[in-house]
Amino acid sequence: MFGLxxxxxxxxxxxxxxxTVVAAGIAGHEAAxxxxxxxxxxxxxxxxxxxxxxxxxxxxESGYIIDRKVDSEDFKEIASLPANSTSYTDSSxxxxxxxxxxxxxxxxxxxxxxxxxxxxxTTTAVEAPISLKVTPMSSTRIDLTWTYPxxxxxxxxxxxxxKDGEWELIATVSKDVNSxxxxxxxxxxxxxxxxKAVSGTQVSSRTYPNNNVGIGAHVLMDGPKNLYGxxxxxxxxxxxxxxxxxxxxxxxxxxxxxxxxxxxxxYVAANTTYWSDxxxxxxxxxxxxxKAVxxxxxxxxxxxxxxxxxxxxxxxxLKASGISSTExxxxxxxxxxxxxxFEIWRREEGSSSWSKIxxxxxxxxxxxxxxxxxxxxxxxxxxASVFQKDIFxxxxxxxxxxxxxxxxxxxxxxxxDSNSQIRLTWTDNSSxxxxxxxERKTGMDGAWSVIATLGAGKTSFTHTGLAxxxxxxxxxxxxxxxxxxxxxxxxLEVVIGDIPEAPSGFRIEVLSSTEVRLIWTDNSDDELGFExxxxxxxxxxxxxxxxxxxxxxxxxxxxLKPGTRYCYRIRAFNKNGKSKYSRxxxxxxxxxxxxxxVDSGYWAYGAIQTTVSRGxxxxxxxxxxxxxxxxxxxxxAAIIVKAFDLEKATAGAFDDVNPGTEHYKEILILxxxxxxxxxxxxxxxxxxxxxxxxxxxxxxxTMKALDKPLTGYGESVLNxxxxxxxxxxxxxxxxxSLVGEKIINERIRNGRTYLDPKxxxxxxETAWVLYNLLRML
Length: 777
Hints:
It holds the Pfam family fn3. It is a single chain. The radius of gyration is 39 Å and the shape is flat. A hairpin with a 2-residue loop joins strand 17 and strand 18. By secondary structure, the chain is mainly beta. Helix content is 12%, strand content 37%. The longest helix is centred in the N-terminal third of the chain and has 25 residues, at 9-33. Helix 5 (692-705) crosses helix 6.
């Protein structure tokens, strides 16, 4: 059946070897570019059309290829699209077949790579809804209902937007559910909706309505708040509520016990917040609600309140007073002998909403509110009632009081004015103190004594008559007429000693055109730090430009002007004063580089100046830095080794790095230090672009190797970036550190902030990263 001939086994082995090499090259190429980079979603528009949608996450593609297979056939190319495409509509489909799609992308060398996973559907897998009804129900809720053709049932995705906003998926409901309540909305706001059938997460129908507008509805405006009522007489009920905004009038509706529906019984003019119902029968229970009316939108109803037309005398003369930081006392006069108790109502300052917080029994004339917070102001009102019969009196007058808690003074500190005088300072954390009491003791075991009493609002005190090298302790207490204990500051130890010794051996190293390092010898063991002062050129006045902590013996001054002469001096300081200055030293920064393609206004200009001036990065022909050029994996290894002066005997090797490979030595130095590693085939790909996320991993490992590990940050610092989820898991920790420490720059496109973790890092970005790392050494 087949023609057979003798096989030359040497030729056969050569063919096998060629196939193996080509396959390895392809595998390496795919490893460099990565696997699928976008999800693929299918929308069944009609039984004759399916739309494909994907994200354009690449910046180096030359186009996209759409592949399709029908049922169990092989994939066939059905379309070739230009770069930056994100959708395609297949109009050559029909009922009864299974269609499977995938997207490939084309690189600059015309090679293609899988870009999405495969997704399958039929043209009847989902059908679009045929109706959608949107109904406002309250000031925070809109109800939706929809239908499908022929009473079909599908999972349904609900999308929503506000005016000029983007569509967002707010819910997906299961089959046989054709309604949804959208709650927690903003009052008096228009929301737009559309719905679609879905099958899983990647297949859906077209939306209903099938446009970008949707079906909109106003959320109702907030209705009248705090509605309450009471019987003025047995034949008249008085209602009261808070005013709405922009209403034209109010409707008052009522129903008596036994009635099923409300009836409008009154009309009230705009901005009027009370109404009397004269048409009631004595000792009868009525339920009321009030609705505001406007021209632009509808209001929600108020809450319903029940009132019985039985007159009850009101309590009077309500008083409120704060008795501690957790208690406010109320008292009133009881004018009625027919109540069964009293209701206590409260609101906080800044709020208009009243709430009933408690009830007390008959003939009670006082109440203590213990659910308050120190320093807050509360408003109260009280009314008599007959419990469970909805019989109420009018409210008392409103009474207000602060919880009279005192907060302790904070940040107690001191400065030494002389060998016998100090100045204490603190933060006043209370708004209701009468004053402050200053106390002192001598020695740890001494007794506290009052040395001064100050008025309210004071935040400093000068104390004289102190001796040198004696240990004093101070504390400050806030007080008022209600509370005179407990609100103490922290204790502060004070010792007047000697000023620190001046530093010696002061010298300066010029590092670059924008940086110098100051070096000195610390001659004191009690300084709190060192002050750095500088002046430029012929300027005669020094200015403080920096400060170090205790025991420091160097300082990096950055952001200087290239080719500029500066003069420096330093001194130590502690609580007792400041040392003499060191000698003054003049220094001139290196002459700045001139670039044909980077001017002084470029965002990374200072970083580029520094790295070039230090000899870490080089300038190309015709003084071109090429700031947007992409750095390769091999180049970055050489830059890191030079920047941090890394030396280590090279260890091991990569299959694609040999003595003839550019940057061979530097790559193996990093490998020996455990900073870089190969893939599963022991390949490093030195000529490939270095991604920003791989850069972050190399940087984090480098700082760890230098015993200067980066501070760890939670992954939440990445949440502000639009492409946060595209960071591979192995790079999340290092990317978080670089973002948290402000080492890596962000990219902004179309008003959104990106990290572009898989994009190649540019030369300017490399300079920026190095510039920020060098300040940590």
